[in-house]
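Intended use. Records like the one below are meant for learning the mapping from a protein sequence to its folded structure. Do not use them to infer anything beyond what is encoded.
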Amino acid sequence: MSTEEFELYNKLVEEIKKCRKCNLWKNKLNYVIGDGNIFSKIMFIGEAPGAEEDKQGKPFVGAAGKYLSKVIKEKIGFEDRSNYYITNVIKCRPPNNRDPTEEEINACKEWLEIQLEIIKPEIIVTLGRYSTKWIFEYFGLKFTSILKVRGKVYEAEKWNKKIKIIPTLHPAAVLYHANWKELFEKDFELIANEIRKRTHNLKDFIR
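Structure written out for the chain above:
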């Protein structure tokens, strides 16, 4: 990533902090833009911030986020977010953690599009149906349901390279449906295999 791209990212952060594209900004505590290493080749994309994320201004820091970090560490070997970048489709918390509406997703999608254009990840991991549906549409893939598309590696062309897209369940849903843990953790073994195809040293998985 060039200095120019780094400056673009910082400019994006400032633009998001001024966003009034939908009404979610009125009740939020913080914009939850993203966290981790913007130089990483892997990007995790979730749905929307929850209560703890809204308080801290960082994605995936509540119970679901802690479980996600644990699985990433155990299955992939990434010790912390210095190895990857993580964000959501929606940058403000929907009231009472309700699902985001189509209008809210459409209003907010510009920010995720710019994040993708700046970071240009080689591997995109989608967490849950909303981010999976959005990413599939963005890359021209057919989405049916999260349980049907998870556990597979999809390929798309972007930024003059092949992009791997790996959908999995949302960690909050996995905590709610304990019987999904095996599926979720198996998906992360698949993600780990894709990373190992590209590097023997996890710390080198940046550009």
